[in-house]
Write a structure and sequence with these properties.
The protein is α+β, with helices and mostly antiparallel strands and about 575 residues long. Helix content is about 50%, strand content about 10%. Helix 7 packs antiparallel against helix 8, helix 17 crosses helix 18 and helix 18 packs antiparallel against helix 19.
Length: about 575
Amino acid sequence: MVPLRRLLKKKLLAPLLERTESFLGPGWRASIREHGDIPPAACHSEPLRLDGVLIGFLDCCPPPAPCPQAPRAAVLPGMARFVADCLEQAIAGEAAKRSLAAEALGKYREISLLHRATLTLNGSLRPRDAAQALLLECRQGEIPAEAGMVFLRAPGSDTFTPIAGYGEVGDWHMADTARSTLFWDVARTQKGEIVNDLERDARWRGEARLRSVLLCPLCASSRCVGMLALGAATAGRFEASHLQYVGTLATVAGIALGNALHFESVQGLINSLMQALATAIDARDPFTAGHSQRVARLGVALARVVHMDRRFFPDVCFSPSDLEELLFAGLLHDVGKIGIREEVLTKATRLSEGAMEVIGQRLAVEALVTGAGTDADFERLSRINAGDTVSREDALFVASLGARQVGIGKRSFPLLTEREIVCLLIPRGNLTPEERREIERHPAESHRILRHIPFPDNMARLLDIISQHHERLDGSGYPGGLKDTDILLQSRIIAIVDIYDAITMARHYKPALPREKALDILWQEARAGRIDARLVELLADNIGPVEADCQCLEGRLDLTAFLEAGHA
């Protein structure tokens, strides 16, 4: 209750009391007294009420000595009542003004809280971030809770899962609150509730070590998507004002969590589509199955090492969004291979099996005509066809074989055609210059395919990372022949882990090589100035943790928990 003197302004009260005293006569004194104060002796008192509640008195005290001009006894009560009525009108007016002011201040504070909460709770589209922001607002709002926890219910689920908390939530088993009938009553009715003595509530069976609790549902689109639970180990901690404060926050938090869950579901769909696309790319060649996923995971793991490095990259800081962008770049780095002919993409030997069969038939015809054996020639030719390099002796053998002719009747034909000779004499690998140019088109083809996808702003460099993953520091790479600083750090990371995975995994043209051999080859490339030697050194020094992180990420595209576990 507001003190009486605060409801009566001095500029109104003083003149009114002076006029009252003049009506009563010389020596009379008129004053107001708070309810509960000791009344003066021999005074006439009139009660003062506000909305029927006694809040004080008007005291009319006679002079010490009798006065001939004193008001008659029958007049005094009516005169005093009239003044008291005037005072009650003034009190009621001032109380109404104060009520309006308090209501306006309350609305202002509520709007201010809503404004601040809207900014803080919607600062992230990750449910965990929104939940932590809500708990921080509760702690800053001077709510007498000793512990708090936010539960989340995923779309299509009937289970509430704790995602954030503060205080002694573990020791008090606060997560078990979700097993109580009280918790589910609040979720069902979608109305917040305070229980200040849980031992007296039949819906509580000691699920957690709490004596009082405040439960507030977090709703979005008429669905309870979460629950805020604030608890204390002592009884009687919470008031209606606390529930009102939390309810205001819950209005924004529910929408924020609903948006975050919707974004998460859409993100999950996109992630699944991206992974399916990467799987489809790798599925064209059984020897490269899983390559894109491994490159993506190795790239993120190596980027984590770069992020924490202070020797070579003290100014580099990869945010979770940067790592997510790198993950997608790794997944999609070979998407352009969709446009590469399968006979080129999966080419295991210089000449196909069918072409070798035709050559074998020609040699068989020659044997029939000349009577000479040709099995040894075919075996040597098969070895050359499957080899990685061609020696000088092998080249002379191919040339001599190509010069031989087989005649049948009046017609003759060479044992090897010009194109077959060209293919068999490829110095290294099994691709002709034309086929190699076709393979080297795939980064540009990836850019062409993916440029139509509206990637979010936090993936603005994704296409550049993919386009540059075969560029080399000395300008010998493709498709743009970029050099040095023109190549993004993320592209250099993908380039190194791409090479590493290609070496350590079996391909149709080579067996898998051990980790040490792969690192030796990377060092050769680095010393030749083609790839970043700093990244190679970091990979070599941290190859165990990098491969372990790669395994931790297997089958997952959501980096949140992974980053929280180790992102500095």
